[in-house]
């Protein structure tokens, strides 16, 4: 099998059409994909191709510039990515507290209460 | 799963910064927090602006960006395999919204730089590869031969395409040294080079 750095984009229904053509039905050893119902469906099971076992792919999607999204528009990010973004922004904006030189802060608190 | 919006991110970040007390005095202006959120998203998605005019002379709306999504899981599906789109892309012609899909594992990759949406065929001599244009197949590109067969040749005018050969990077224009000269007989689906093809040589056909 030829290993490419990208899979071959097919229009919907084209994979079935190509299957019927003897000369090209295996896309000359490459893997194609169609986009259907929110999924990228590959022309073969790339998770079980011997020697490759691809369990993840990289994608580039065309989306709108973030400036164009309103406050309540759905952003093109998943919830896992949202958690990372929140953590990152909080980490950037969170002020670092001054170092606490006391060994055990609870001890002094107890003294003051008396 | 929460719907991820700018407002949702802003409110969550604000709640964390203010210790969960919404009545506490605000330390940061709303715009500043939103700017940081936007920068963070851009960094995560590695966004870059998309050219308004594509190599195929098509134009697409302004204000679109390419967003990268790494390590999208692939699962088996009815004898094939599939990957869920991590976000809904913009709907463009020929499913161009999904601009690129490739294996996440680097290594053993044939580096053939080409835009997905152009009708460009690139083939390596003695190792035929169809990169884009699924109906544009180059067949029988063998070293020592002078013939290159391509399905689409029969459908275009004799001067309706360019052919450039050479090593990578393939020159963008004909070097005019005679190495690119070829003959095409009208309505035939092959071209005939003047000199034999050499293994390892690349071929670029633009229709």
Write up what this structure looks like.
The complex is a heterodimer of chains A (114) and B (207). Chain A has 114 residues and is an alpha+beta fold. Chain A has helices at residues 14-19, 79-93, 105-113; strands at 8-9, 32-36, 39-42, 56-64. Chain A has a 3-stranded mixed sheet with strand order 1-2-3, with no helix packed on it. In chain A, strand 2 and strand 3 form a beta hairpin. Chain B is an alpha+beta fold and 207 residues long. Among the domains of chain B are: 6-45, no CATH class; 120-206, no CATH class. Chain B has helices at 6-17, 30-45, and strands at 48-49, 64-77, 80-84, 98-103, 120-124, 138-139, 147-150, 162-166, 182-184, 190-193, 202-206. In chain B, strand 9 (182-184) and strand 10 (190-193) form a beta hairpin. The chains are: A alpha+beta (114), B alpha+beta (207). Chains A and B meet through strand 1, strand 2, strand 3, strand 4 and helix 2 of A and helix 1, helix 2, strand 2, strand 3 and strand 4 of B. Strand 4 of chain A pairs antiparallel with strand 4 of chain B.
């Amino acid at each position: 099998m030829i290993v490419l750095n990208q899979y071959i984009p097919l229009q919907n229904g084209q994979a079935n059409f190509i299957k019927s053509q003897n000369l090209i039905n295996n896309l000359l050893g490459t893997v194609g994909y169609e986009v259907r119902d929110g999924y990228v469906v590959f022309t073969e099971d790339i998770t079980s191709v011997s020697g490759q076992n691809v369990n993840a792919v990289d994608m580039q999607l065309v989306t709108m510039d973030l400036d164009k999204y309103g406050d309540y528009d759905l952003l093109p990010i998943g919830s896992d990515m949202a958690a990372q973004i929140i953590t990152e922004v909080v980490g950037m904006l969170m002020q670092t507290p001054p170092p606490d030189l006391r060994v055990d802060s609870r001890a002094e608190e107890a003294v003051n209460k008396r | 799963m929460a719907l991820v919006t700018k407002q949702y991110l802003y409110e969550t970040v604000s709640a964390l910064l203010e210790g969960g007390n919404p009545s506490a005095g605000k330390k940061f202006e709303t715009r500043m927090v939103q700017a940081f959120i936007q920068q963070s998203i851009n960094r995560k998605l590695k966004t870059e602006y998309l050219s308004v005019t594509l190599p195929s002379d098509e134009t697409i709306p302004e204000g679109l960006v390419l967003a990268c999504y790494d390590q999208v899981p692939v699962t088996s599906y009815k004898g094939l395999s599939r990957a869920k789109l991590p976000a809904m892309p913009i709907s463009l012609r020929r499913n161009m919204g999904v601009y690129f899909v490739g294996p996440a594992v680097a290594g053993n990759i044939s580096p053939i730089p080409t835009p997905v949406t152009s009708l460009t065929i690139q083939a390596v001599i003695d190792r035929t590869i169809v990169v884009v244009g699924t109906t544009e197949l180059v067949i029988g590109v063998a070293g020592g031969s002078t013939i290159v067969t391509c399905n689409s040749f029969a459908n275009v005018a004799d001067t309706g395409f360019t052919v450039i050969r050479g090593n990578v990077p393939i020159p963008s224009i004909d070097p005019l040294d005679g190495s690119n000269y070829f003959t095409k007989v009208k309505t035939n689906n092959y071209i005939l080079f003047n000199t034999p093809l050499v293994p390892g040589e690349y071929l670029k056909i633009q229709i």
